Fold this sequence. Notes:
The complex is a heterodimer.
Chain A: H1 3-8, E1 16-23, E2 34-41, H2 48-58, E3 78-81, E4 84-87, E5 99-103, E6 109-112, E7 115-117, H3 118-128, H4 150-160, H5 167-170, H6 174-177, H7 183-194, H8 203-210, H9 224-228, H10 235-257, H11 259-262
Parallel strand pairs in A: 1-5
Antiparallel strand pairs in A: 1-2, 3-4, 3-5, 6-7
Helix pairs in contact in A: 4-7, 7-10, 8-10
Chain B: E1 2-11, H1 15-26, E2 31-35, E3 51-52, H2 66-76, H3 83-103, E4 113-119, E5 122-128, E6 149-150, H4 156-170, E7 174-177, E8 179-188, E9 194-203, E10 209-219, H5 240-246, E11 253-254, E12 259-266, H6 276-279, E13 283-285, H7 293-296, H8 306-321, E14 331-334, H9 340-346, H10 348-358, E15 367-376, E16 379-381, E17 394-396, E18 401-402, H11 414-435, H12 445-464, H13 471-485, H14 492-509, H15 524-548, H16 566-569, E19 571-576, E20 586-591, H17 615-634, H18 637-644
Parallel strand pairs in B: 1-2, 1-10, 2-7, 10-17, 16-18
Antiparallel strand pairs in B: 3-6, 4-5, 8-9, 9-10, 11-16, 11-19, 12-15, 13-14, 14-15, 19-20
The structure holds flavin-adenine dinucleotide, iron/sulfur cluster (2 copies) and FE2/S2 (inorganic) cluster (FES).
Amino acid sequence: xxxxxxxxxxxxxxxxxxxxxxxxxxxxxxxxxxxxxxxxxxxxxxxxxxxxxxxxxxxxxxxxxxxxxxxxxxxxxxxxxxxxxxxxxxxxxxxxxxxxxxxxxxxxxxxxxxxxxxxxxxxxxxxxxxxxxxxxxxxxxxxxxxxxxxxxxxxxxxxxxxxxxxxxxxxxxxxxxxxxxxxxxxxxxxxxxxxxxxxxxxxxxxxxxxxxxxxxxxxxxxxxxxxxxxxxxxxxxxxxxxxxxxxxxxxxxxxxxxxxxxxxx
Amino acid sequence: xxxxxxxxxxxxxxxxxxxxxxxxxxxxxxxxxxxxxxxxxxxxxxxxxxxxxxxxxxxxxxxxxxxxxxxxxxxxxxxxxxxxxxxxxxxxxxxxxxxxxxxxxxxxxxxxxxxxxxxxxxxxxxxxxxxxxxxxxxxxxxxxxxxxxxxxxxxxxxxxxxxxxxxxxxxxxxxxxxxxxxxxxxxxxxxxxxxxxxxxxxxxxxxxxxxxxxxxxxxxxxxxxxxxxxxxxxxxxxxxxxxxxxxxxxxxxxxxxxxxxxxxxxxxxxxxxxxxxxxxxxxxxxxxxxxxxxxxxxxxxxxxxxxxxxxxxxxxxxxxxxxxxxxxxxxxxxxxxxxxxxxxxxxxxxxxxxxxxxxxxxxxxxxxxxxxxxxxxxxxxxxxxxxxxxxxxxxxxxxxxxxxxxxxxxxxxxxxxxxxxxxxxxxxxxxxxxxxxxxxxxxxxxxxxxxxxxxxxxxxxxxxxxxxxxxxxxxxxxxxxxxxxxxxxxxxxxxxxxxxxxxxxxxxxxxxxxxxxxxxxxxxxxxxxxxxxxxxxxxxxxxxxxxxxxxxxxxxxxxxxxxxxxxxxxxxxxxxxxxxxxxxxxxxxxxxxxxxxxxxxxxxxxxxxxxxxxxxxxxxxxxxxxxxxxxxxxxxxxxxxxxxxxxxxxxxxxxxxxxxxxxxxxxxx
Lengths: 265, 669
Ligand SMILES: Cc1cc2nc3c(=O)[nH]c(=O)nc-3n(C[C@H](O)[C@H](O)[C@H](O)COP(=O)(O)OP(=O)(O)OC[C@H]3O[C@@H](n4cnc5c(N)ncnc54)[C@H](O)[C@@H]3O)c2cc1C
Ligand code: SF4
Ligand code: SF4
Ligand code: FES
């Protein structure tokens, strides 16, 4: 059923929603950031996905935004909704006031209006953290797979559920001051590989990646990230765990390098 | 004009495209992947329930092997599949899943000892053996004899795609996102054959047009579900890959009418609730709360093949047993009997979706569902190597292709499995092709420029044409036609109207003008305009194919021709659009040879047998039975298979080896 059909079946007393959208197209010469307001009628079960498409279809065909799965699975549609980062596609308008403000995620490169370039940012992060399994040797795929404790597999999946939506980055105070900060998404990735026995990297290797001021130590653990993560990842406990781990490594490596303690008395 | 050269161009960054890319890169070829969106956001990420591979680790999968997986797949396809391809597939699937395990997918694992499961609404205790502990687990899915569908909760596609994309990072594969292929570059080569040389591509952020020129071009752009107004597919599954192949006038599409409807998409938005819901013990109920599937299908019940369940649900709704709602009638999916723990662990996405989109708790409430467009069995027709049957240098795999693993109905869990397996195999064939001297690109840059200019011209026309048609309107009209006239049950009268109406839309689509948004850079209205032009063509191939096929096979169900007619219709629909000015594609048929089948056509086992048999089927069946008898004296299942339908010589050498299982030791012959 098309959006307009849904709208036409709305009851008479349907709410009028006022969308205040931050508009700006950096590719258009002379364009300036501005807020534009669109008024549409709410329909039952309306999500921001449905509402934004309604606006594009019936009011302004140039409005830019990103949706792919429209089911809260792919991480494409994160934006700042009434001041808070979240996934637009699984946000029901019924849960919002009639005045709804929408802005693109900060930090990421702006493509236009509500569309930002999270893809290259996440790719850069993945490359920097080498977010892939570092195997020692190739597994012969004709043979039985390596067994893994069922609970451990579940634990890895729990962290693997990150959808790289960028909400945690948009909600993070540290990143405003440190552009290179890996953010909760980055720390979560390291936590994910760190518990994965298939990845043969040592804690010292991880320390190399996040044991500095752009890594785990500049996180202020204020937990803006966990509040906004649409997948409810256990960011708080994972960051705390990594911090402890990395602190241990940091201390040992200081001892290893430090002459005064290298000869026991 | 910008022209970029590479060895292999892969259009599509989903599971299929990425696996081709890693494969050819490992063989030492340069590769560039293009994608509309960051690869990790491709539709593959939405696959929930699982991936089929006959590992036989879990108790309910014990005894499983390639033979059973093969038979399930062929029966599921209603004998439309290519049996050689299916054999290649079932032998490679266990390798694919084990490779993915090594690349980081945290597959759910078998826990030794007793555990409880719900089977046929009863609690049963299942015992898992000690030596299976920690190996990859499997769940039940529709149309399979064994529990064969391996999973990570219900985020299987997500975890597979992430592992795959991370692998691509490790291999430093060049991925260009927010790039859209608009046309294939092709010409008659110096060897006087039709050859594909790459694609004209539009940067969706800047609007710039560029050309990628390559020895081999692969289309892995997924399905065309969005020609329907309601679909479980991501909104980017618009069939553009199939359309640009069709627009060459040379490449062919196969079985475009073969479209699957999934029984359980939530109403009204069409978001999927995985088949894993029923696989794990959930059931369908009607307006009275009555479990109706056992009445229709006493044996497989709620877990009959997808096409069957979707039809039974529709029949039941037509009998007045649906639940009325403002969005039309629906039925209920009841997973409350699985318990909250199970739902929160193994059906997490479904749980989230129910809470977020319906505001219900699936551990307590029933889920409103209705059969909805879900999967495209049809696509770019290829040989078993993935190469287009008619356009050299063009390859396709995954949902975009008609490789023909699925025939007229795909089994749940066989699609993500196909994407990876086909990616593995096709990468090898492409690498072989690129290794050969004759693959050198012998195209003149004038030709490339001509293709770019031609596409630029089309875009300019769309932007400057005054008072033309509104693309949004045409597109909605197309979606509605498909929905109402080319759906689960089809008939000649409606299909005829559908084709006529689509032809009118096609004509009107030549006069689209982009309204209210004239930017040449990122411009959603412009994108909608050119995609709509392409989508109408794809819709036509599907509707026309359905009109011509006067039988019912798998998901293609004709009320006026309810029999599966092997006598006349054991063949693939092949379409080519060689004359641009015509308003219909040219149709031909490709016969499916019974004499070389390992599993000759038979009764699928659902409802009443309505097959009009082909006389050859019985003869071939006799030959197969004799071979089986002869083999039983000295041979094993491998020698029998070899006798009936040799295929291993067609596989790339590295994938010919047998698969080890707990009860089937490893022998490296
Ligand atoms: C909701 C849902 C659940 C599913 N669950 C399962 C399951 O449990 N088990 C199973 O086996 N199957 C499942 N399927 C089916 C399966 O997910 C898909 O068939 C499969 O993932 C398709 O993969 P693909 O690589 O062929 O294409 P996709 O993953 O769709 O990728 C297509 C790629 O092509 C790109 N692209 C498209 N057009 C262009 C263009 N013109 N130019 C450049 N790039 C382009 C896109 O950006 C994307 O990267 C499910 C499907 C749905 C809809
Ligand atoms: S806890 Fe750390 S990562 Fe999370 S928002 Fe605060 S500073 Fe950022
Ligand atoms: S950690 Fe959560 S908020 Fe951050 S990118 Fe991943 S899913 Fe999004
Ligand atoms: S569109 Fe995929 S998460 Fe919103």
